[in-house]
Amino acid sequence: MFKAFLIKYGEIGIKGKNRYLFEDALVNQIRLALDRVKGEYEVSKSQGRIYIECLEEFDIDDVVEELKTVFGIVGICPVVHVEDKGMEQLTKDVIQYIDNVYKDKRKTFKVNARRARKNYPISSMEVNKELGGKLLEAFPDLSVDVHNPDIFLTIEIREKIYIYSKVIPGPGGMPVGTSGKAMLLLSGGIDSPVAGYMIAKRGVAIEGVYFHAPPYTSERAKEKVVELAKIVAKFSGPIRLHIIHFTNIQLSIYEKCPHDELTIIMRRYMMRIGEKIAKERGCLGLITGESIGQVASQTMQSLRATNEVCELPVYRPLIGFDKQEIVEISEKIGTYEVSIQPFEDCCTIFVAKHPVTKPNVNRIRHSEGKIREEMEELVEIALHTKEVLEIS
Ligand code: ATP
Ligand code: MG
After folding, report:
1. Strand, helix or coil at 35?
2. Distance (Å, rounded) from C-alpha 344 to C-alpha 235?
3. Can you name the residues that pair with 202 across neighbouring β-strands?
4. Which residues does a 6 A CB cutoff place in the pocket of ligand 1?
5. Last residue in a domain, options 135, 169, 203
6. What pLDDT sits at residue 220?
7. What is the pLDDT of residues 27-68, one digit of tens each?
8. What is the span of the domain harbouring residue 337?
């Protein structure tokens, strides 16, 4: 029955002169998403709207599932289109539409006719009245509510006539590729994939860096991170994932620095290395999954200490979220089940029994001073031996 979709988009409608850039990016992302489902589609812009025409057999659920991954889409409206054969036929078509789409007719409705084709002989108001009346006759259970109807039935008069009333929520945000690129510090946990998702939602393309510490962290832990990157990539587009071999750096910190400072110093090296790759790759910021107070390394003092080693901005989209709120997003985007698989993380292997919760930045700098030279070399080696995977 449905042969097309109308795509509603919010914020990108208000970008003034840049508007067409955003619309083009959205059209592009929609096309990429539709490449992943069977069928042939034509995506077009017209008068501040985006339409998808389905040219072949297609599975509506599959299409909607894919469109729900396209940032920038606020609503997905499945559309029925019919030939313009006059009011009498249109009335029949609209009655049939309501009959098919709403099994239970105990609902309120409002007809919203729009003439994109101004030469249509009947005014929008008249179309509303006429169709509203005929629907009430056909379905006595229906009633009219012009302010807050259950069914907001739009009749759009173009070359053909488009009928739609359902709006399936999209993910919102802005089309990927309209806001530059950032480097996500991606671990196997719950938080960092969600952090990547949230920044990508603002139109930012993403690369990732994962710190791997074989043999303390297994191949399976690495595969888990790759799996998470794949899920995030459904939304963000392809992710170039840099895998850094971190073992020697961690061992060296472990041997030469006070144990209560291990985590903070290790985190500082992650940020330094992340930033080096970020700059090399043209990223404009780093992204982490940190949230204030979640663990010892995420107190305000610890965040200050990890933050100071970077010159690029560090985006922490989860900073004010409770764990439960983060879990809810991870369930929604599909990373949760993967994140909770129990594989060791490089942070958990070298942790002290009692890590500092209020690190003193001067003391941390002093401890790092003792290993500076060998660390410079180890960082160079880590950068030279990194693996790169293209995740899509
Ligand atoms: P997550 O659920 O994201 O692992 P977490 O609560 O375990 O977060 P930490 O282990 O303190 O928190 O890490 C804080 C942030 O540092 C992570 O959100 C992530 O961005 C980054 N990070 C931690 N470990 C790694 C790693 N092995 N590789 C890449 N980034 C990491
Ligand atoms: Mg972690």
Report:
1. helix
2. 26
3. 174
4. 185-187, 189-192, 209-211, 270, 288-290, 294-295, 297-298, 345-347
5. 169
6. 93
7. 999 999 999 999 999 999 887 789 999 999 999 999 999 999
8. 181-391
